[in-house]
Design brief:
Blueprint: E1 8-11, E2 14-17, H1 35-43, E3 55-58, E4 61-66, H2 73-77, H3 82-91, E5 93-96, E6 106-110, H4 113-132, E7 138-143, H5 147-163, E8 182-188, H6 193-214, E9 220-229, E10 239-246, H7 252-266, E11 281-285, H8 286-291, H9 310-316, E12 320-326, E13 328-333, E14 345-350
Antiparallel strand pairs: 1-2, 3-4, 4-6, 5-6, 7-8, 7-13, 9-10, 9-12, 10-11, 13-14
Helix pairs in contact: 3-4, 6-7
Length: about 350
């Protein structure tokens, strides 16, 4: 990272400049793991701007609330309460955090409005930075549950294992589960019931815009044909996916995907990674290799063992999986399985 051009981090509708600190993949933010976050707090330039922060008068002072999943309470408290005491001392405020195992907002009290705003900003930055280190928990998906496509996928898998045997890194663990074939729209990190409910409600609110405005009540038919890989070297691939084209040649599926991402990023529930969603159906992924043999989620590229896809692309580069009528969009739970074999869903909408 160029320290003179540090990245900008958007947390909700607020923007912060992020200092370079090596990330960690620790899933639980506990009181015993606050050293990194103390550095974040130290490196934060305390130029307070309380625009957009709801600060109200209370008695002889002011108070404000910070929405925070309980997984981050230990982070704000810090080791033996050090982080909480540090923020309180430097901003001349008092901070109340719900007890262990309880949900609720963090409340900030102070006699000075600027101090309350500063404490709010510091806590928000800590939460936002920690959230960026969490693996995603949910994703918006289009299920590919067509039996014909699933059968063609099984044929593809069997032929690759038979005809590409001996190619570096290729084995049975690389392939997607036929019952979990899907098109990914975007990923989310939802850390409590309130965030899941917010995302579920937003998906349902998007339904009318998608079905009436973009699709105009007409069905969406997609042809799945051809293979492509994510990186630049076909001899060292992590993800191999099938390409999508719309039967009528329109951009309707792209518009549906981009609209969903726009709405979810605007609500602070998703981070935009690209200008446009890269529409694809993953068929082989090195993440599957570890997910099926370990109990933890891979968070570092170093944990992945790539494979040589050159022969697969040569033999099956134009492989046809079939046509799909896109009938629904799900808010799917990562690393889950429902009764029908697909990912469990917290919410879903139906398309024409």
């Amino acid at each position: 990272m160029d320290v003179l051009r540090t990245p900008i981090v958007w947390i909700g509708k607020r923007c912060y400049r992020k200092s370079y600190i090596e990330a960690t993949s620790n899933r639980n933010c506990s009181e015993e793991d606050a050293t990194l976050d103390a550095q974040i707090c130290d490196n934060y330039s305390d130029e307070t701007c309380d625009v957009g922060i709801s600060i109200e008068s209370k008695g002889n002072g002011y108070h404000a609330f910070v929405k925070c999943p309980n997984v981050f309470f230990g982070l704000i408290i810090g080791k033996r309460g050090a982080m909480k005491k540090k923020i309180e001392s430097e901003t001349r405020t008092q901070i109340q955090i719900p007890r262990h195992g309880q949900d609720g907002d963090i409340e900030i009290f102070g006699i000075d409005r600027t101090g309350v705003g500063s404490a709010h900003t510091r806590i928000t930055v800590l939460i936002g930075t920690a959230r960026h280190r969490q693996p995603f928990t949910h994703f918006i998906s289009i299920p590919v549950v067509n039996p014909s496509i699933q059968a063609k996928f099984e044929e593809f898998k069997e032929e690759v294992l038979q005809n590409c045997q001996g190619e570096e890194g290729i084995d049975n663990t690389l392939f997607q589960n036929r019952n979990k074939l899907h098109i990914t729209i975007g990923t989310l990190t939802l850390l409590d019931d309130a965030e899941i409910a917010k995302a579920s409600n937003l998906l349902e609110e998007c339904c009318t815009q998608l079905t009436s405005v973009i699709l105009d009540g007409c069905p969406l038919l997609v042809n799945i044909r051809g293979l492509e890989y994510m990186n630049d070297d076909p001899s060292a691939v992590d993800v191999l996916y099938a390409k999508l084209t719309i039967d009528d040649g329109s951009e309707r599926l792209q518009e549906v995907a981009d609209t969903l991402v726009y709405n979810f990023t605007s609500a602070g529930l998703m981070e935009r990674q690209y200008d446009r969603v890269k529409l694809h159906m993953t068929v082989m992924n090195t993440l599957f290799r570890k997910e099926r043999t370990t109990s933890y989620a891979i968070t570092s590229p170093k944990d992945r063992e790539c494979f040589d896809a050159r022969k697969v692309l040569k033999l099956y580069g134009d492989y046809g999986f079939g046509s799909l009528h896109i009938g629904s969009i799900h808010l799917s739970q990562r690393l889950s399985t429902s009764l029908d074999g697909y990912y469990a869903a917290d919410s879903s909408i139906t398309l024409p």
